[in-house]
Structures are given as structure tokens and as C-alpha cells.
Design a protein that fits this description.
- Helix 9 (about 200-215) packs across helix 10 (about 220-240).
- The protein has 11 helices and 10 strands.
- It is α+β, with helices and mostly antiparallel strands and about 280 residues long.
């Protein structure tokens, strides 16, 4: 059967695949476009099956908040290359995943989320859109992390979509909360408050600081040495504990102090960096 150029172009417009692949599929399908699409889909799946070990260190993190229900979702969608992470369809998929996670019934796993409908397209699942895009672009995609939180959440996503932070709060999602989100994203403190640090770690650090203080100040009285040690411990806490850190917009105050002034209480923080499991 003779395959016309218009048939090939029509299939290419629908699939985004190279002209030669489209012509080959149409030839195999005797001009049946639907069958040709299925042939291309199976061929793409076979090709990608041999690429599952490829590194996926690019992608984007997306946050979506359903403000009417106070539900926030965050997803991490990975790919192989930076150009693909900025592809319009890849961005559409990432946004749809976050929106469905927030507004739909929820999901405990990426697989469970992918099985759900594409927002505003009930005839298409997220998995179908995902597979079609993989077949078109021919890069490995991974929906690596998802999280959904019920309650008041403040969020920040860096402009490159590679770093994001959420803070779960009691109070209002105000400007102070959003500034603290930016601080979490930037500073990445491992602890929210001092109580989260293992007491043995604190005692070990204090012993180290005590030894340093005595070696550097052998003639200082004990009460002065204790003040030096306390100062070193405060620096230690400021590097690791969010609430003990100087507030980024007013270093004369701690994050705890500005939280008190803004009438908010931070219950939990989450920070993701692309391709880096916390």
C-alpha cells in the first residue's frame, strides 16, 4: 500500500515522532493510523525498556495548594536532561501530577497517583499521558517522590524548580511564613528545634568545645570558659536548628522570635532538592 506524505505528516503531528518512524509504522499498519499509533507505542516501550538504568538528575519539583480545602501537594518528576525538564509538555505533566494529588482522592505511592485521571481530562490517565510523552521524547522519566499535607502550609519553589520547601504551621500563611520557607530552602537546617538533636550528640559537641576553649584560653577562670562554651554551642545550634537560626531578613532576631511576633508555630518542615533523597 502506498503511504502518502500527508498521512505521514498527520501521524507525526499526532505523535511528535520522526517522519521515518511514522512512515514505517503506517506501512506496517497498511495505512491504519490508529494501528500505526499502537505500533509506535509498543516500539517506544521496547526502546525505553533498555534504558531504565539511565541517570535522571534533571527535572522539576512542583507544589500545588487547594486553598479551599487547605491541602498541599508536592511532587518530584525526574528526567535525563535539562532541555526536557523545561519542555512545555513535561511541565504540563508535572503540574498535572501535583494538582491531581492535591485535589483528587490522594495517593500513597507514585504508581497510585499515575493511575488517576489527568485533571480536566477524565478520559486520560496520568500514566497514559506519561507514557505518551516518554514515547515522544525518548528519555527516562521517574515520578520519584510525592507528598500531600492536610492543613495550613506555606511553600517556596526556587525559580529553577530544583529546590522547594514546605512548612506546616499553626496560624496564617503570611509573609513571614513564606520568608521562613525561603530560609529553609536556602539554609537546609537538619533540625526544626533543639529537642530533635540526640542528647549524646550535644554532649559530644560540648566536650569538644570545652577542650578547645581550655586549650585556647588556659588562664581564663571557669565561669568565663563556660560562657565561651555556651557561645560556641549557640553557634552550633544556629547552624543546624531552624528556630535557633538568625532570621534571614533580620539577623538580630531568631526564627523563633519572628514566629512569635507573627503568631505562627512551625510544626514540620520539608525540603527537597532535585534528585537528592533526604
Amino acid at each position: 500500500m502506498e503511504i502518502s506524505a500527508s498521512q505521514v505528516k498527520g501521524l507525526r503531528d499526532k505523535t511528535g515522532l520522526p517522519m521515518m518512524e511514522c512512515k514505517k509504522a503506517l506501512t506496517e499498519a497498511n495505512g491504519d493510523e490508529n494501528l500505526a499509533i499502537e505500533i509506535l507505542r509498543k516500539a517506544g516501550a521496547k526502546t525505553m525498556a533498555g534504558r531504565t538504568d539511565r541517570t535522571t538528575q534533571e527535572g522539576r519539583i512542583v507544589v500545588f495548594t487547594d486553598k479551599t480545602k487547605n491541602i498541599t501537594a508536592m511532587i518530584e518528576l525526574l528526567c535525563e536532561s535539562e532541555p526536557v525538564s523545561n519542555n512545555e509538555s513535561f511541565e504540563l505533566l508535572a503540574n498535572a501530577l501535583a494538582e491531581q494529588l492535591a485535589t483528587g482522592p490522594g495517593a500513597k505511592t507514585p504508581e497510585e497517583l499515575l493511575a488517576q485521571p489527568f485533571p480536566n481530562k477524565p478520559e486520560t490517565t496520568l500514566q497514559q499521558f506519561f507514557d505518551e510523552l516518554v514515547n515522544k521524547i525518548r528519555e527516562v522519566f521517574r515520578l520519584s517522590r510525592i507528598v500531600r499535607i492536610d492543613g495550613v502550609v506555606s511553600s517556596y519553589v526556587h525559580h529553577n524548580k530544583h529546590i522547594a520547601a514546605l512548612i506546616v504551621i499553626e496560624g496564617e500563611d503570611n509573609a513571614t511564613a513564606r520568608d521562613i520557607c525561603m530560609q529553609v530552602a536556602s539554609m537546609n537546617p537538619p533540625y526544626l528545634n533543639k529537642d530533635e538533636i540526640d542528647q549524646s550528640e550535644i554532649e559530644k559537641e560540648r566536650e569538644i568545645f570545652a577542650k578547645q576553649a581550655k586549650e585556647r584560653n588556659p588562664n581564663k577562670p571557669e565561669n568565663i570558659l563556660q560562657k565561651i562554651i555556651d557561645g560556641l554551642m549557640n553557634t552550633y545550634y544556629a547552624e543546624r536548628v531552624l528556630l535557633a537560626q538568625p532570621f534571614v531578613k533580620d539577623p538580630n532576631k531568631t526564627v523563633q522570635q519572628v514566629c512569635n511576633e507573627a503568631n505562627i508555630k512551625i510544626k514540620k518542615t520539608i525540603r527537597w532538592a532535585i534528585g537528592q533523597e533526604n
